[in-house]
Amino acid sequence: MSMIFGVPMAVLSGQLLIGIINGAFYALLSLGLAVIFGLLKIINFAHGAMYMLGAMGTVILFDNLGVNYWVALFLAPVLVGIVGVLVEYFLLRRIAGQDHIYSLLLTFGVALIMQGILTNIYGVSGLRYSMPDMFKGGVNLGFMFLPYYRAWVIVAALLVCFGTWFMIEKTKLGAYLRAGTEDSQLMQGFGINVPLLVSLTYGFGVMLAAFAGVLAAPIYSVTPVMGSHILIVVFAVVVIGGLGSIGGAIITGVLMGVVEGLTKTFYPPASSAVIFLVMVIVLMIRPHGLFGKEA
Amino acid sequence: MSQTDIQSDIQKTILKQQKAEDRRKLMLNGILLVLLLLAPFVMYPVFLMKILCFALFAVAFNLLFGFTGLLSFGHAAFLATGGYTTGYLLSNFSGLTTEMGIIAGTLVAAVLGLGFALLSIRRQGIYFAMVTLALAQLVFFFFVQSPFTGGEDGLHGVPRGELFGLINLEDNLNMYYFVLVVFLACYLLVQRIVSSPYGHVLKAIKQNEPRAVSLGYKVDRYKVLAFVISATLAGLAGSMKSVVFQLASLNDAHWHMSGEVILMTLVGGVGTLLGPVLGATLVVNIEYQLGQGPLRDWVDPILGAIFVLTVLSFRSGIVGEVQKFVRKNMG
Fold first, then answer.
1. Inter-chain residue contact A101 with B126, CB threshold 8 Å
2. Under an 8 A CB cutoff, do A119 and B300 touch?
3. Is A120 helix (H, G, I), strand (E, B) or coil?
4. Measured distance CA(A176)–CA(B162) in Å, rounded
5. Is residue A260 a contact partner of residue A274, using CB atoms and an 8 Å limit?
6. Cβ–Cβ of B134/A269 closer than 8 Å?
7. With left for phi above 0 and alpha for psi between -120 and 50, is residue B81 left, alpha or beta?
8. Which one-letter DSSP state was computed for residue A293?
9. Strands, E, within chain A: which ranges?
10. Does ipTM exceed 0.85?
11. Going by DSSP bridges, is the β-strand pair A145-147/A138-140 parallel, antiparallel, or unpaired?
12. Which long-range contacts (CB under 8 A, 24 or more apart) does A126-130 make?
C-alpha cells in the first residue's frame, strides 16, 4: 500500500473525503450566514438551531408521517424557512435600526429557546435516521471507497451553493438584494417592497441551513444540540473568509473542511481546534479575512 | 434682587440638590453594605458567594460592553482560565497560600486577555463578537485536551487553604467575607475607572469612535487596556469561584457561559454600575429556583425567552429603566 508522509493512502483519502463533506456543510451554513448578513446586517446566531431543526424535522417527519427523504429534502427547508420568516417578522423587525449587536443577542435567545424545547422533548442522545435504500453501498475508486450518499452530499451541496451564488450575483432578484444592501431607502423609493425582501432573505438564508440539516440527518447524529457546536466553527469560517463575499464563504467552507480532515490524519488532537488556529493566523495577516473587503 | 443674586441662588440650589443626591447614594450604599455583611446569617453562604463571583464576572464584562461598547462573546475563556490556573496550582503546590493561587490565576487571565485584545481589537461590532467567540472556543479545546485540567471531569477537590497562611477558608463565613472584600474592592475600582478621565475617553469611544480618533486619542490602546482590565477581573472571578466551590470545570469555558454573562449584564442594565450585580443576582437565583422546581428542564428555554424579551422591550435593563423613570418623574 502506498504511503504519504507515513500515512497510508487509503486513510489519507478517507480523511480528505470526510474533510470535503464537512467542508460542504460549512460552505452551506456560512453561505446562509453571508446571505443574511448581506441584506440584514444580522449575525444569525440561530443559524445552528435552524440547521438542527432541518435535521430533526427530517427525522420527525419520517417517524410520524412516513415522509421520505426526497420529500423531506424539500419540505423541511420550506417549513424551517417559514419559521425563519416568522422570527424575522415578529422579532427581528422590531429591533431593526438598533445596534446590530442586539439582533445577535436576540437570535442567540431564539436559539436557546428552540434548542431547549427540543432537548426537553427528545433528549440530548439524539434520534436515528436510516439511510434511504438507494444510497446504501458505494463505489470502489481503486484508491478509496466512496459511499454513494457522501458523493450525493457533495454534489447536492455544491449545486445549491452554486445556484445561490448565481442567483445573487447574476439575476435580477439578486440585483435587488444587492441594491437593498447598499441603500434600502432608495430601493423603497423605486417601489420595491424592501421589508418583504428582508423577510424572504432571512427565510432563504435559514432554508439553506435547514437544507444542510436534511443532508446531515443520515450521516451525523441528529440531536437538539447538533447545531450549537457547528455554529461556532462556521463563525470562524466566516471570519476567515471575510463577511460580505458569497463566493468567499463557499470556497473558505470547503477549504476549512479539507484542512480539518488533513489535521485529523496527521495530528488528531489538534483537529477540532485547527480552524480556530487558522482564524488567528488569518486575522494577524489579513484582519478583514481572505475574501472580505476592508471594513 | 439683582441678577447675580439669582444666579448664586440657583447655584446654591443645584449644590444642595447634588448634596442631597450624594447623601441618598451614600445611604443606599450603606444599606446595601449592611445587608451584604448580614446576609450569610440568613442565607446559605456558598450560594451568596456564587452570586458575588458571577456579579464580579458581570461587572468585569460590563466594563467592556457597557462602557466601551465592545461586545465580547468570549469572556468564558477568562473565567475558566482563572479558575483552572488557581485550581491547578492550589491542588498541586501545597506550599502556596490561597491568595497567591488566586493572584496567579488572575495574572494568567490578564495575559490571555492581552492576547485576545491584540488579535481582535481592530474589528468592530458583531465582527468583534465573532472573533472573541472563536478565540474562546480555541481556549475551550485547549482545556479539553490539556492533561492538567482533568478533561471532561474538571478539577475536583481544590483545597481552600488558608488566607495569608492565617485565616482558615474552609470556614464558610471566613470565605464569604474574603470574597465580599475582593468583590467590593473590584466594584469600587470599576467605579473609579468609569468616572476617571480614562473612563470618559472610553465612553467617548463608545459613542463615536471616529470622533475620538480625530480628537487625537489612540483609541486602540484605550480599548486594549479596557479589554485587559475586564479580562483580569473576569479571571479573578473565576479564580475565586474555583476556591469557593473547590472545583474548576469545563462548563466555565463553554460559550454558553459567555452568553450567560451577557444576559446578566443586559437584564440588570448595560452601562450602569449596579446593573450587572443585580442581573447576576437575578439570573443565578432564577437558575437555582427553577433547578429546584418542576421546571427543572426548562431553564435554557426560559433564559432564552428572557433574552428575547429583554432585547425586545427593555434594552436598558432594570437599573437603566429605573434610572429613566426617576429622571422623568423626579428630575
1. yes
2. yes
3. helix
4. 68
5. yes
6. no
7. alpha
8. P
9. 3-4, 7-8, 138-140, 145-147
10. no
11. antiparallel
12. A126/A221, A126/A222, A126/A223, A126/A226, A127/A56, A127/A59, A127/A60, A127/A63, A127/A222, A127/A223, A128/A59, A128/A222, A129/A55, A129/A58, A129/A59, A129/A62, A129/A217, A129/A218, A129/A222, A130/A218
pLDDT computed for residue A85 by the predictor: 94
Residues for chain B: how many in total?
331
Q: What is the pLDDT of residue B240?
A: 93
C-alpha cell at B91: 491542588
Put simply, the answer to whether B312 touches A113 (Cβ < 8 Å) is no
Q: SS3 of B315, please?
A: coil
Residue A146: φ, ψ to 5°: -110, 105
| Cβ atoms of A42 and A92 closer than 8 Å | yes
Nearest chain A alpha carbon to B74? A232
Domain range summary for chain A, segments of one domain joined by +: 3-285
Q: Where are the beta strands (DSSP E) in B70-157?
A: 155-156
Q: Is there a contact between A272 and B304 if contact means CB atoms under 8 Å apart?
A: no
From chain B, the residues in CB contact with A119 under 8 A are: 297, 300
Retrieve residue A82's grid coordinates. 417559514
Contacts of B147 by beta carbon, 8 Å cutoff, 6+ apart: none
For residue B130 the three cell numbers come to 465573532
Taking each continuous run of H as one helix and of E as one strand, the counts in chain B are: 13, 4
- Domain-by-domain residue ranges, chain B? 44-254
Q: Do B315 and A119 make contact, defined as CB atoms within 8 angstroms?
A: no
- Kindly tell me if the per-residue pLDDT of A261 is higher than 60: yes
A78: nearest Cα among A95, A113, A53, A48: A53
**What are the beta bridge partners of residue B167?**
B163
**In which residue are the cell numbers 457522501 written?**
A150
Do the Cβ atoms of B306 and A108 come within 8 Å? no
Q: What pLDDT, in 10s, does the model give residues B238-295?
A: 999 998 888 888 888 888 899 899 999 999 988 888 899 999 999 999 888 888 877 7
d(CA A244, CA A293): 7
Give whole-number Cα distances, B300 to A110, B152, B303, in Å. Answer: 11, 21, 5
Q: Is B301 on the interface with A (CB under 8 A)?
A: yes
Segment (H or E) for B34: helix B3-42
Question: B68 at the A interface (CB within 8 A)?
Answer: no
Query: Partners of B248 in the beta sheet?
Result: B155
Of A235, A269, A277, the CB nearest to B130: A235
Amino acid identity at B186: C
Single pTM value for the model = 0.86
B151 has a chain A CB within 8 A of its CB: no
**Residue B278 CB-half CA count within 13 A:** 16
Contact: B126, A104; criterion CB under 8 Å: yes
CATH number of the structural domain A3-285: 1.10.3470
Average pLDDT rounded to a whole number, residues B39-46: 83
Cβ atoms < 10 Å from Cβ of B44: 12
Q: Return the residue of A nearest to B207 by Cα.
A: A99
For residue B122, pLDDT over 90 is answered with: no
Is there a contact between B303 and B224 (Cβ–Cβ < 8 Å)?
A: no
Burial B243-266 (b: 16+ CB within 10 A, else e): bbbbbbbbebbbbebbbbbbbbbb
**Coil/strand/helix, residue A58:** helix
Q: Pick the residue of B64, B138, B270, B306 with the most A CBs within 10 A to test the interface with A by mutation.
A: B138
> Which cell goes with A94?
422590531
Would an 8 Å CB–CB cutoff place B295 in contact with chain A? no
With a cut of 70, say whether residue A167 has pLDDT above it. Answer: yes
